[in-house]
Amino acid sequence: MRSSFPSKAPVYDWSPQIQGIIFSSANYGMMLTLALSGYLAGRVGTKRVVGVSLFASSLLSILTPLAAELGLVCLIATRIVQSLIQGSTFGGQYALWERWGPPHERSRLCSIGLSGMMLGTFFIILLGGIICQTLGWPFAFYILGGIGCVYCLLWFVLVYDDPVSHPWINVTEKDYIISSLAHQIQVSPCKQPLPITAMLRSLPIWSMCVCGFGHQWLTVTQIVYTPTYISSVFNVNMRDNGFLSALPFIIAWVFGILGGQMADFLLTKNFRLITVRKTATFLGNFPSSALLVVLPYLTPSYVTTMTLLTLSCGLCAICQSGIYINALDIAPRHSSFLMGATRGFAYIAAILAPTVNGFLLNQDPEFGWRNVFLLLFAINLLGLIFYLIFGEAVVQDWAKERKLTHL
């Protein structure tokens, strides 16, 4: 069944379960290309891998309304292809940190970079609500996709793969970065084969994968279902829903940056690196998921609901200074591949969460949200416990320099 808004934008009558499949289709390809793009970026350069992927993804955003017009299958196929490309955008950026990030500044730098996801989510939800209300939902894809294409030009002009190739960098800053990374770049990554067998046997890596899976389930539920939850509880229009749904993510952006500052501050006070990583991971998981669990049991009100959602999203972002950059600690030479691979494993949750949540909401309208949040809490807690037991922050033996590579 199909109808139209006054703006003539088409409306599709999709059930919560179908919506869940559509939401999850945007992540189908990510888990396949995150590790590969991290590997490629470490060898051919982040600038090219991410730049090309960003342009292609933006172009597909512009074509999404046409895909929806052609049918549900075409829409899902388009989003799957886009997810393959976006995985390259996401995974490729990790190679920058191993070439630009001094060890004692990485928490700060990575948290600032990764927090951009929350800032982008804030603007997309906020502007998306306004655009959908005034111009119709297709224009949200046209406008935001167009912005992505313009941003590609800035990327190719301003971004460089390493300090050596940057034409405008201060000489003092360049020397400082290169000297601080000298211990991990004596051997070129392309001359070292990936120790895949050792990686597959590594419990620290598996702890990042499992905990990342739980955290990604939490994050995807927040991003995808915050607008839906607010709409179901308060029955607000698209514009107001966009504002209310976007608010938690601007706070998450701030918390993410502060988390990186906190992590580097603790390191300067001689806290053990693994203690800092596990503290950030705990703060980004347990409180955030616990706040969502209590939400359905409280009497709905704007103040209570928005306070809990905002705190949950804000605390969730602190995890950026934990598991998501832990690969830089345990295997700096292979960090771009590992960060992509562990994030790719975590993105399995991005596929499953919308589908499972849509099924739960469709099967049990009365207690659907309670079931969604309880399942989220259980998955998140199990992943966190696994990381707290097996997580490490020292360079692994298989990731150390091999003297035989020197000529």
How is the topology of this model organized?
Elements: E1 2-4, E2 10-12, H1 16-25, H2 30-44, H3 46-70, H4 72-92, H5 94-100, H6 106-114, H7 116-134, H8 137-158, H9 171-180, H10 196-200, H11 203-234, H12 238-268, H13 273-283, H14 286-294, H15 302-316, H16 327-330, H17 335-363, H18 368-390
Antiparallel strand pairs: 1-2
3D architecture notes:
The chain has 407 residues and is mostly helical. Helix content is 73%, strand content 1%. It has 18 helices and two strands. The chain has a two-stranded antiparallel sheet. α2 runs parallel beside α4 (72-92), α3 (46-70) runs antiparallel to α4 and α12 crosses α15 (302-316). The longest helix is centred in the middle third of the chain and has 32 residues, at 203-234. The protein is globular, with a radius of gyration of 21 Å. Mean pLDDT is 85; it is low at 1-6 and 185-190.
Cα end-to-end separation: 69 Å
Helicity level: over 70%
Overall average pLDDT: 85
Largest sheet strand order: 1-2
- Total DSSP helices: 18
The total beta strand count reads 2
Series of secondary-structure elements, N-terminal to C-terminal: EEHHHHHHHHHHHHHHHHHH
List low-pLDDT spans: 1-6, 185-190
Name the structural class. mainly alpha
Shape: globular
The largest β sheet comes out as: 2 strands, antiparallel
- Please state roughly what percent of the residues sit in beta strands, choosing from under 5%, 5-15%, 15-25%, 25-35%, 35-45% or over 45%: under 5%
- Gyration radius, in Å: 21 Å
